[in-house]
Amino acid sequence: MRITLSTVAAAGAAVLLLAATPPSSAAPASSGRDQGAQNLGDPDYGVCRGTDPRCYHDWGNFDPAKGYKLLVYSRTAGPRHAHLGTPLGPGLNPPLNDDNVAVKAMIRIGQENGFAVDYTEDVGQLSSAGRLLSYNAVMFLSTTRDTLDDAAQTALRQYVRAGGGFAGVHNAFGTEYNWPWYEGLLGNANFYDHGANQPGTVLTVDRRDVSTQGLPQRWAFSDEWYNLVPAPTKVRVLAEVDESTLPQGVRGNLGHPGHGDDHAVSWCQYYDGGRAWLTTLGHDVKAWTDEPMEGDRYFLQHLLGGVRSVLGQAPFCR
User: Fold this and answer.
1) pLDDT confidence band for 40 (50 / 70 / 90)
2) Measuring CA to CA, which residue among 21, 4, 41, 32 is closest to residue 270?
3) How far apart are CA 121 and CA 93, in angstroms?
4) If you average pLDDT over every residue of the chain, what do you get?
5) Which residue in 59, 178, 188, 280 has its CB near the most CB atoms, within 10 A?
6) Selection from 33, 30, 29, 2 nearest residue 232 by Cα
7) Cα–Cα dist 304/8, whole Å
8) Distance, CA of 200 to CA of 26 (rounded, Å)
9) How confident is the model at residue 148 (pLDDT cuts 50, 70, 90)?
10) What span, in angstroms and rounded, lies between the C-alpha atoms of 87 and 96?
């Protein structure tokens, strides 16, 4: 059966209707995989972070009546993933090439699911918190290395503190290594290394979240399976990879031995006033196109749910 982005969007929308009520201000129910944020002030990053919604700043900056809008940022200052294609021109929404498949996929997913998508690789577009506040969420899509200048770092931090949403996808974890606040935004996590791009089995460990409802407990997918140092803490882990299913093993090219029985690939958290949904998945070009790849519809359904939750279209991190 040929899988299309339209099919994914339709399936995802049907599932996400199950969670269409606004998020409650009460603390979410505990989960066996929920590492929790009982200490609201984090000693490592000096901010309120974790799964307690009291860490969120609901200051009324985002009016649902105005619709929902996502900014996709994919600037690279180092190795560039094939799913990003050729570098984009300056400004907002420059012309796209045929190989800019991941950005094109996000535009189409937005069109099919009720949110607008702007995109850029121009750091100047992120230099003002006021400009960012016109978006319900910002996505870092396989950004690489130091992609922000001082003004953009300040603007992103002020935006998140004002209740903004953040989605970090794949090599967002290989970005801004020397900025502790950003490492905290990723859930106290950073890319260290990876093994071969290979098939494996994703375990849906928390099926209550809007990004995991309707996903199988186990589903096949191919990726680089990032090893992380540090690894996420005080987050709600949503999905993991079963390391025993990786035919070439999990050991990374810099020697990381993997994470054993708890190798997270997706999670969510409140952070410094905002909301963050994170996934290390999304390496393969086929995951972003209509070219068949096992598990791609589940990946895109998972991603769609996560984006909708940080946008405020659906409950967050439940």
Assistant:
1) low
2) 41
3) 9
4) 88
5) 280
6) 33
7) 9
8) 36
9) very high
10) 9
27: tokens are 């603390």
Listed by start position, the domains of the chain span 5-311
- How confident is the model over 166-175, as a mean pLDDT? 96
Q: What does the pLDDT look like over 209-262, one tens digit per residue?
A: 999 999 999 999 999 999 999 999 999 999 999 999 999 999 999 999 999 999
141's torsion region: left (phi>0), alpha (psi -120 to 50) or beta?
A: beta
Distance (Å, whole) CA 202 – CA 304: 17
Contact between residue 209 and residue 227 where contact means Cβ atoms under 8 Å apart: no
Topology (CATH level 3) of domain 5-311? Rossmann fold (3.40.50)
User: What type of residue is 287?
Assistant: A
Amino acid symbol at 260: G
User: CA-to-CA distance for 154 and 126, rounded, in angstroms?
Assistant: 9
